[in-house]
Design a protein that fits this description.
Two copies of one chain form a homodimer.
Chain A (H helix, E strand, L loop, with lengths): L11 H9 L2 H11 L5 H8 L3 H13 L3 E5 L7 E5 L1 H4 L2 H14 L8 E5 L24 E5 L1
Antiparallel strand pairs in A: 1-2
């Protein structure tokens, strides 16, 4: 993964991508949000090599978005769960999925929909809002130095 | 960029990443949302090689998230603007930026804030909501086949 020159201002987007921005990491996280937790299940579902899977999981554990926990109380075998830090990527993934559903299927029906578990109804499109709840378009927002 | 095996179900996240998932593409898009449009400005701001910048811009134009437009009516020189498809990545970028601000600065103050242009007030945290407006956590949502 390439990095911005060290003299550039630190950027939350560059820092985030440095944690989980590799293609396979993003795809593994997608599976985590679908409830996959076990090494073997990631491997079977994704057809990823064991070496690559191990490297990506280790990095995400090290950087704090996944944690290893025993598969049952007292068990020796462990599986992978999202930490609070990892769970908060939910919004990014839902927004990315909605964008992909809208723009990358060109007339085909997307294979899946994200629904509210309780009601089975599709979730609302994720949007940027002001503190008072107004929907904000790109031209309505700007970046300011702190 | 690695791909999922062809026999795997098409996925909006994999398809999206295939369009703009390379590290430099994401960083270029970040600059687009900050109003950068000219080749030379991307180059100067990012310290990226001309070859890489050209390749990334060409791909994003080809895949429909950027467009080349004359820098002034009738001018021969062109610059790069987000298409409607590109602009709709705004939500993904704001969500990613907010996550990075919260989780990757460990006590330091993040360098920038996203504010509403009109009021100068910081924007609300991007969240996933039900159609009726309820905030949904990862455990409140699920993926269903269409």
């Amino acid at each position: 993964m390439k990095r911005l020159p060290m003299n550039k201002q630190p950027c939350p987007i560059a820092r985030s991508l440095d944690i989980f921005g590799e293609w396979w990491s993003l795809i593994i996280l997608r599976e985590c949000f679908s409830g996959v937790t076990r090494f073997d299940d990631f491997q079977k579902t994704l057809g990823i090599s064991k070496n690559t899977l191990t490297a990506r999981l280790n990095k995400m554990v090290e950087r704090g978005i996944l944690k290893r926990v025993p598969i049952a109380p007292g068990a020796l075998r462990e599986h992978y769960k999202l930490t609070e830090m990892g769970k908060e990527l939910h919004t990014v993934f839902i927004a990315l999925r909605q964008w992909g559903d809208k723009w990358t299927f060109e007339g085909e029906t997307p294979p899946n929909a994200v629904v509210e578990r309780k009601s089975g109804r599709v979730v609302a499109p994720v949007v940027v809002r002001s503190l008072s709840g107004r929907v904000l378009k790109p031209r309505d927002t700007m970046l300011v130095k702190l």
